[in-house]
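The record is kept unedited without comment:

——
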Amino acid sequence: MGGILFLIFFLLSSSSDACDRCLHHSKASFFSSAPALSSGACAYGSLATSFFAGHIAAALPSIYKDGAGCGACFQVRCKNPALCSSKGTTVIVTDLSNTNRTDLVLSTRAFRAMAKPVLGADRDLLKQGIVDIEYQRVPCDYGNKKMNVRVEESSKNPNYLAIKLLYQGGQTEVVAIDIAQVGSSHWSYMSRSHGAVWVAAKVPAGALQFKFVVTAGYDGKMVWSQRVVLPASWVAGKTYDAGVQITDIAQEGCDPCDDHIWT
């Protein structure tokens, strides 16, 4: 439980600083090649291009949040009425952008998806290079898919465990993870290593269960997968069903933001 208790102050203090539900006005550009995003700082690797049909993005540090923003979903639309639809597209954050020219750098597929469904509009939009946009945090919708726990190749059963979460729903950020042997009341915490990767140097023996602390409401919530998530014989490189899906919405004040409503 140590990791969970340590995060209480973080949850309460950060909610007043962020404004993920607000409508932001900025600019967006695009990567000309998908591999540039699939090798991103979130460490999703080649899996990144499978999220939302390759509608992925690199985000500035205030969205990336030292990796806590990895997997966050945003509705993005450009503001050129001659070329762009009013619907825009949904993207998922898979990388950190170090440019100060735009808030988001989209995959080419996501950038083109903002165009009107008119012949040639997507091509003309790409020619713009950088466009004015509006964007807003939205829940990630994976349908009936459960959240998955992927065991990283660097893991060594039973001495070292590195994981990343895939297909997390809702509109939340995981800020703590605790693990325990199934049936045990002794929990130990995992630490964020980099991007979406969490690690534990002392791994309990046997089958493992997980507790996740996520931003939800105006503070935080614990999501406990009360089942075997990783079997005793877990294997590096494999992905396992977490048995739960996070559907909560993190509600945060919009005073620092530009607008409040997507119209």
